[in-house]
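Backbone-to-sequence.
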């Protein structure tokens, strides 16, 4: 008996015997087969590498394996989202599974192919955080999910919709994950059908065959069923057990649960206070991940209100200082509160240096890992050179990379902008003499260079006016102009109280 026949016979025996969620597993497989045969719409399986999506993929694979080859008339696309900051041990497992699926499906003559999607080069985590200076994600500003997960998968789905008219997305979502998820599943269900409407993508429908399963029932299936694309689910089980983690689902809309609370997902996730998944892996022997955990914890620290002044510029990327008005519960009702901007460029430089050192040390220890892609470094460099508040006149990034790795990358030449470090020093001297901010003079000269040689310089006055209207000077000066002396007096008192409290904590 061949390995394939052994796996098939074992799986068939299990299907005949097992009952899950008060339903025979054979009924679930038959349902999948009937839905597959009912129309020509291709299927897209969202695969995150976790227990739920692995169960879905296994059920679909085995259902198709039982069908006659002449009935396999439409394609099944397996799509996995790689944010480029996934937990490293999970990335390795997912890539291995994707390779196994593609190889085994080809051997079994099944119309199944697995694909990986990634965020656009200028929308990755590091380009946004280190390049643009976006603050680390929080519950109220979770900028990462849409850019890094929803958009890449949605583009893949919409591409298939454009080619085929309609598609069916197979998901491992379960009602027992959360009450909000159960509500979303119920709201989009099509009456009298196995399908539901996709929450945001036109001509895309969803099918959730394990929606009523519990987590224990999912594990019961995975530990009972042989892995149809070779290998075993034991590694997955050990990974969950070692990290005390849940699954980070493949995210296709904003209603999908966050990966933050003790879930496998991005190792940089700061939506929650602690990353219990990585902490668990470190505690079970994966000590090489401790620097990643420490780095992630500093990112989280930067989101705390008491440290925002230390990490973040007082101006937004538009060059202005912003405020929000408080509510009646504040000490001073209606008080305007300052909203900090992007990370200081010095903080971003420090973090990039630390990230590269961690990456090199891990690689030197014998593990192949790339924490930040080379094309991300190129993108970050461009954002630093043209930063709206703190342009990197010294073009620091190539030097930072060389200080860690001792080599150069193929950096884009002649792209350091109109100013050099010596120009910056000269403008600083002029600022000291005249009070004209160096960055303001730089932007005005940039506008002149941009318009030089044009036969019509339409709009130049408007651009100059925009620069002049930006907030220049210290935060104290700007607050005094915008808020008035009374609120500033209160702001200073709050700041003194805050610093006194921190001094007291440090003294202890």
């Amino acid at each position: 008996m061949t390995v394939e026949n052994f796996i098939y016979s074992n799986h068939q025996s299990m299907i005949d015997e097992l009952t899950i969620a008060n339903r025979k597993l054979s009924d679930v497989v038959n349902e999948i087969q009937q839905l597959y045969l009912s129309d020509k719409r291709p299927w897209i399986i969202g695969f995150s590498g976790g227990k739920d999506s692995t169960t879905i993929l296994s059920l679909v694979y085995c259902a198709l394996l039982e069908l006659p080859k002449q009935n396999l008339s439409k394609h099944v696309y397996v799509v996995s989202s790689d944010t480029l900051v996934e937990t490293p041990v999970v990335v390795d497992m997912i890539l291995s599974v994707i390779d196994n699926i593609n190889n085994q499906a080809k051997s079994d003559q099944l119309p199944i192919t697995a694909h990986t999607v990634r965020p656009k080069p200028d929308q990755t985590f590091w380009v946004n955080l280190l390049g643009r200076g976006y603050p680390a994600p929080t519950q109220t500003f979770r900028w990462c999910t849409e850019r890094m997960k929803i958009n890449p998968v949605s583009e893949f789905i919409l591409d298939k919709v454009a080619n085929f008219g309609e598609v069916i997305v197979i998901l491992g979502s379960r009602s027992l994950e959360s009450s909000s998820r159960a509500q979303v599943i119920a709201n989009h269900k099509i009456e009298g059908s196995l399908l539901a409407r996709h929450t945001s993508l036109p001509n895309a429908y969803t099918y959730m065959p394990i929606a009523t399963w519990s987590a224990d029932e999912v594990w019961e299936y995975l530990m009972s069923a042989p892995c149809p694309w070779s290998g075993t689910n034991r590694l997955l089980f050990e990974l969950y057990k070692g990290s005390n983690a849940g699954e980070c689902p493949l995210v296709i809309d904003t209603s999908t649960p966050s990966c933050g609370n003790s879930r496998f997902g991005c190792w940089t996730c700061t939506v929650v206070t602690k990353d219990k998944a990585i902490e668990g892996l470190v505690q079970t022997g994966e000590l090489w991940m401790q620097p990643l955990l420490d780095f992630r914890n500093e990112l989280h620290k930067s989101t705390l209100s008491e440290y925002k002044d230390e990490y973040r510029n007082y101006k937004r990327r538009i060059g202005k200082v912003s405020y929000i008005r408080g509510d009646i519960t504040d000490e001073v009702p209606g008080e305007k509160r300052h909203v900090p901007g992007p990370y200081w460029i010095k903080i971003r430089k420090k973090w990039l240096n630390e990230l590269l050192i961690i990456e090199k040390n891990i690689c030197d220890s014998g593990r192949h890992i790339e924490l930040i892609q080379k094309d991300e470094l190129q993108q970050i460099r461009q954002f630093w050179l043209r930063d709206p508040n703190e342009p990197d006149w010294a073009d620091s990034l190539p030097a930072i990379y060389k200080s860690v790795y001792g080599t150069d990358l193929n950096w884009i030449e002649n792209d350091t902008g109109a100013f050099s470090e010596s120009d910056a020093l000269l403008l600083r001297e002029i600022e000291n003499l005249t009070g004209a901010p160096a960055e303001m003079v730089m932007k005005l000269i940039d506008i002149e260079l941009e318009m030089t040689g044009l036969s019509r310089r339409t709009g130049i006055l408007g651009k100059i006016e925009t620069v002049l209207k930006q907030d220049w000077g210290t935060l104290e000066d700007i607050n005094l102009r915008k808020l008035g002396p009374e609120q500033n007096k209160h702001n200073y008192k709050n700041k003194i109280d805050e610093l006194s409290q921190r001094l007291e904590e440090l003294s202890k």
